[in-house]
Predict the structure.
Amino acid sequence: MTKKRKKREVELVVLSDIHLGTYGCHAEELLRYLKSIKPKKIILNGDIIDMWQFSKRYWPKSHMQVVKHITSLLTKNTKIIYLTGNHDEMLRKFAGFRLGTFTIDNKVVLKVNGQKAWVFHGDIFDVTMQYSKWLAKLGAIGYDTLILLNASVNWLLNKLGREKISLSKRVKDSVKGAVKFINDFEITAAEIAIQNGYDYVVCGHIHQPEIKTIETDKGSVVYLNSGDWVENLTALEYANNSWTIYRYFDDPVAKSIKLPKRLRDKMNNDEIFRDLVSQFVTKKQ
């Protein structure tokens, strides 16, 4: 009999920008990560299901399995807080919803080791989102196309024995406007957090994992960003009284977890509905 692998215990996990329902989402890698940990609390910090680009024509089993795994944690008393982002903004009308250990909100303030952590997605700081939503959506489509192109390039590089590359990351790193946007985003979040007396400010949205202290003439705050599961494959973890950035590419344990075959197969709507309902009506033996 195969010995059951002991899961790593984590007090708090923050995930954002998973973008389920898009070609760029690394659902299988995320599923391996989730299967490797035992979290007490999970914050899903926006853009979990990409409702801008969602299509019933593309919904692989691996994407469904991520949803099933997260909902199954509710039966194990894991507290799950879903904070809305711009790609899943349709859920903002349900802010304040509570069902057992599951909550939907737009933002949340947590007590972490006696200190206050302000957690929200971050799209409120995006001028493009506020004034030209159609332009932001057009940009999202272009981003997803770039991810598809990147997958083809990496397949070819793999055949040639070369290392994979991230085209989107190279574009962001090389464009001065993108670098400035990231810096402005971080400073804006930090300044508002300092004004409100928070010790931590936790965001997503910009797909840039980070933990750093930002100081202004008004004070200082620890800025954290959970990154994404499109290019960086990262999360924030809080355990043993400290924050860390989890990086899937540096985790040999998670990468070694075997998943059922044919996870990329599509599921019809009836199967999706039955699988979701079964998570809540099936009793654990």
